[in-house]
Amino acid sequence: MGKIIRRSLLIILSVIVLIFSSCAPQGCMEETTAYVKASFFNKKAGKLLPPDSLTIYGLGKQANKLYNKALKIQPAKIPLNDTAQNCIFIIKINGKTDTLEFRYNSYPHLVSKECGYTFYHTLDTDRIYTKNAIIDLWYYKRNITTINEENIRIFY
Amino acid sequence: MRRTYVFFISILLIHLISATQVSAQDTITFPLKIKVGLEVSGPAIYYSNKKILSTEAYVSADINEKVAWVVGGGTLKYAYSQYNYEYLNKGIFGRIGADFNLLKPEKSLGKYWAGVGVHYGINRFNTEVPAFRDSNYWGLTKSSVAQKTAWGHFLEITPGVRAEVFRNLSIGWTISLRMLLYTGTGKDLRPIYSPGFGNGANRVTSGVSYFIVWNIPYKKKQVIIKKEEPDDTEDTAQSGSEQSGTGQQSVGTRQQSAVPQRQQ
Asked: Interface of chain A against chain B, CB under 8 Å?
């Protein structure tokens, strides 16, 4: 019986060693940018529904649009400026233009040894936006990380 | 009342049988030792990579032929850099626990060890990110994280082997499987490498350590050696091949402890 236990223990240890030795370091395969993940809710349809046309760009960055008349985007991924404490975006939903401002604090976060560091953000509770296409704006998770989760919901 | 008598008589008989068995067993003199071990791969790695210097040593004391208390510690100087960040860590660590020898005393003889250690570790370190870069839609951001002192805690399981190659001098290796309990730096700035643990970005890490160990015998202990019992599977196979009369005898022997109860 003792022999069986010892042999089993050796086998278990060997398997553990194999598992750990197979976990060789890889390149950076993870998401390294903390986006605000904004989902779109159509009030008329009464459900989560992406707009037919979506354009988003940062204020002063019209030449470099995040989305340009993009179709069926759900959720939209909006990056914040690491070096600033607020960020203004122009958002055009089905041809109607709004501005959306985020106020936040940023802090460094280690993604992994392979990927290095990025900035995470915590949104202030202030919700600043115009109401042309946007009807309402909800903040769900104000902690903006690389995790794929809904942060805000835009009602249009 | 009768059942009570039977119970006590049974207990008495069982003790008599087991006492007879013990007196029939052999004994060996097992040397209990204090061991001082020095990890050698750390300085060897430093010779080829001047950015990592780890040192480690331990002292263990045999409690008996199976178990030894272990106290150890070491230091770390670690520097790492890649295209988007630089990282520094410098600190010390300590660990305490027990080593369990899985070898039988008559095979171990105080010279050979094959077993597993279970240790609790604690480290104190200064961690710093002198520079890192992050780029996104808004451009490139250059930043840094100031030096911070932190305490970390971890658990460690270390299977391994050691053998005495010269009188009172052993060599051996252990595989360390470590689980982080607390980084001391918060979840956002986990240490990329921390003393005694390794990559703090992972909750579980592994490593291999190579030791030279000086053994100091301090006491001798008489250890009873149990004779090897044949495995159950072998018994079954044997009785199956035997004739029916012999088979019955075998079954009677195996149920020896139940005999007194039948004599109620």
From this structure: 1, 3-4, 6, 9, 13, 16-17, 20-21, 23, 32-33, 58, 61, 64, 66, 79-84, 87, 107-110, 112-113, 116-120
